[in-house]
Amino acid sequence: MALDTVALAQTTPDTQQPFSELGLKPDEYARIKEILGRRPTSSELAMYSVMWSEHCSYKSSKVHLKQFGDKAPKSDALLVGIGENAGVVDVGQGYAVTFKIESHNHPSFVEPYQGAATGVGGIVRDILTMGARPIAVMDPLRFGPADAADTRRVLPGIVAGVGGYGNCLGLPNIGGEVVFDETYIGNPLVNALCVGVMKHSDIKLAKAAGAGNLVVLYGAKTGGDGIGGVSVLASETFGAGGSTKRPSVQVGDPFVEKVLIECSLEIFAEDLVVGIQDLGGAGLSCATSELASGGSGGMKVALDKVPLRDPSLSPEEILMSESQERMCAIVEPNKIERFLEICKKWDVTVTVIGEVTDGDRLEITWNGEVIVNVPPRTVAHEGPVYNRPLAQPAYIDEVNSKTVDVPMPTSDSEIKAAVLTLAAAPNLADKSWVTSQYDKYVQGNTIQSQPDDSGMVRLDESTHLGVAISTDANANWSYLNPYQGAKLALAEAARNIATAGARPLAVTNCLNFGSPEDPGVMWQFAESVRGLADGCLEMGLPVTGGNVSFYNQTGAVAILPTPVIGVLGVIQDVRTRTPMSFTESGLELYLLGETKEDLAGSEWAFLHGQRVGQSPTADLAQEMRLIELLLEGNSFFAAAHDLSQGGLSAGLTEMVLRHKVGASISLVNPAIDLLSETPGRVIVAVNSADSVKLQELATKFEIALAKLGVTGGDSLTINNVRISLTELSTAHTSTFPRLFG
Amino acid sequence: MAKIVVDVMLKPEILDPQGNAVASALPRLGFNFAKSVRQGKRFEIEIEGEPTTAQLAEIEKAAETLLSNPVIENFVVRVEK
After folding, report:
1. What is the separation of C-alpha A39 from the centre of its chain, rounded to a whole number of angstroms?
2. pLDDT at residue A228 in the model
3. SS3 A154
4. Do A114 and B12 make contact, defined as CB atoms within 8 angstroms?
5. What is the CATH number of domain A77-197+441-576?
6. What is the pLDDT of residue A237?
7. Are B17 and A251 in contact (CB < 8 Å)?
8. How would you classify the pairing of strands A553-554 and A446-448?
9. B6: distance to nearest CA of chain A, Å?
10. Worst-scoring range by mean pLDDT, A218-232, A590-604, B20-34?
11. Where along chain B do its domains lie?
12. What CATH homologous superfamily does A412-420+579-740 map to?
């Protein structure tokens, strides 16, 4: 194919262009022509198509996501907010922490290992790009039914990919989720979170300021991988795109990324960059247009200078390539020599590909001929915005009008069977099969990881300052009531931080939904965003950034609305944290928070095939009082554990099995007490001498308090029902090995 | 008895970290001939007698489903004399 230049585009206005194959709608194509005053060149078309894809432009979600800004609570902690690669939060002592969660769902279905691996690689580079050293990762995962054949293909590959990439980078994996539901078959969710730490002064932004500054590409060479990944893979349902010439899957190389991290941190430490951006989805198209529009707008790039792994690539393909482990930096000319030296030291390929100009156009040339000449803001930030129709789906009234009707255990043997069934249920069973493939302790700063309520890492070895992170979603509740579901997930994640004694500080999110072209899905999305924004305002927690993943569906069936909420908190001294379980006998166990008959959306109802009823209503005022109680009680609690999926039954199972110390519990109404999933509840263990202090705290913060029993023995005993720890442990730990080998 | 060889290589567009590692190790050991290296894997399958067309088709199928990952790899089946 002949090179399509700007000059050629001007003289051949009527050339047919494959805009619809690239995912652009006719009116979007018309708008590009209007912006440019001519037809786009094929390279420009490639850039607009990837940057205006749902994945990059947030064109369906933007109008809703605005609420995170509009309703943002006042927070002194937020140093960098939404819009940059990741938000940055002040955690005190001069430290800042950046964290973000992103999806890599579709690639992970096509090629589980590489899809998940490059998902980790991408989020780690996002964190690095802010100037931070990545210190930990987490991975909330969702799959089809645990016993489905395709889950046996997808799950081991994804888990190995997450582990393979993260372990090679030397990053501890400190938590996440593994959840099964039939709606995720054919569309597993792979969300990857990374957290990084830096000093306040080290924050870097994606902007290309200062005419004459150089545009530098460094890291891996560009190959033909992932071409069209963004526009075709990440934005359209499978089967619609047809097969492409180039494979849409990227293969990453974690060792190259590790070198890239160290090289970049050395470059940052010497203050050699003005702006920086990683190359993720939409590759160079994204990096150049975002950097340019972050500055004054002018940039000139010679695309033929980009080092290639495959010399046969066309300029359009180079612009769209999603080859991994690449970064783009803006460097002042007097600092370039040192920049190149550092890259040479780390054996990182580096090339000056262009410079910042004082104009307002992004101009890209190929062997001297202009192939792109666009206003960069129109590519990066001023893409189409859709106010898509939304309508409450018909199922909502239907499921909300029903009530959960499941057999409740009454006899001793039924109660025992229920506890054992929940302990073994794939959603609640021991996840060691997964987490043992991850390195949890590398770097030596991991304080907590799975199966604790939250992941916790130490930031400073002398002061023991640390951060805790938890990610949560309850898609069953979101299905019944997306507004409440998002609030409840936020509350749960915050509670999971607070049980350890860390104060919740900031929120990130990964919003996984079906097709935005379905008004019902769009309604679920809008309600979830509204719920999360309202919840964050009420709890005083700013949203620092996030990610939206649409088109998660197989055929006409959308996944359950799955807003994964990540909350980050700070703990002044990690040595004072409260563990999730007890190691001693004779401690008193208490339940904080009231238990109501909340079976709708519960694991017990799910196990009986019922997803009906009304989700609980989030009481965030109560949640905040509970959090304050936990933070104040941290000084004397022996253990504290959040209750969520699986209710008290699952909570007790996890606690007694953690250190193999049993407990004797007495319950007035064992069936509901064990199986209900009323939010806002925590089990705490205290020395009997401290029980008065606990009662005083409960009174002070107006939280219901009930004594459950005492710790000790080699069984979990509930009223007259005795379940030996051996039996409970066998039920809890055998599910994953049985399913996945 | 016939030997059937299945060669599996990453598709040319796909990054090959192992091949790259070999390529960068060669000059360190004094071998300066390589412009690039790609690493693959080879299966040798023995069968009784000469392979029939049906057997070869079956081996093709096996290569596609088990021996290679068709998302990122290509393969070639040949009979070795």
Report:
1. 38
2. 56
3. helix
4. no
5. 3.30.1330.10
6. 33
7. yes
8. unpaired
9. 21
10. A218-232
11. 2-80
12. PurM-like C-terminal domain (3.90.650.10)
- % of chain A beyond a pLDDT of 70: 97
Q: Where in chain A is the domain with CATH 3.90.650.10?
A: 23-51+208-380, 412-420+579-740
Closest C-alpha to A47, from A16, A65, A14, A24? A24
What amino acid is encoded at A415 in this protein?
I
A200 is catalytic: no
Is the per-residue pLDDT at A243 higher than 80? no
Helix axes A112-129, A149-169, angle to 10 degrees: 40
Per mean pLDDT, which range of A274-283, A405-414, B27-36 is the poorest?
A: A274-283
Check CB contact under 8 Å for A111 and B72: yes
Q: Which amino acid, A277?
A: Q
Pick from A233, A244, A253, A313 the residue to mutate for testing the B interface (most B CBs within 10 Å): A253
A496-A124-A376 Cα angle (round to 5):
120
| B10·A114 Cβ contact <8 A | no
Residue A241: DSSP 8-state: S
- Interfacial residues of A (vs B; Cβ cutoff 8 Å): 110-111, 114, 220, 223-225, 246-247, 249-253, 255-256, 309-310, 323-324
Residues of chain A with CATH 3.30.1330.10: 77-197+441-576
CATH superfamily of A23-51+208-380: PurM-like C-terminal domain (3.90.650.10)
What pLDDT score does A246 carry?
56
Helix then strand count (H, E) for chain B reads 2, 3
- Compute the average pLDDT of residues A452-456: 95
For B2-80, the fitting CATH number among 3.20.20.210, 3.80.10.10, 3.30.1280.10, 3.40.630.30 is 3.30.1280.10
The answer on pLDDT for A234 being more than 80 is no
pTM of the model: 0.92
> Is residue A64 annotated as a catalytic residue, yes or no?
no
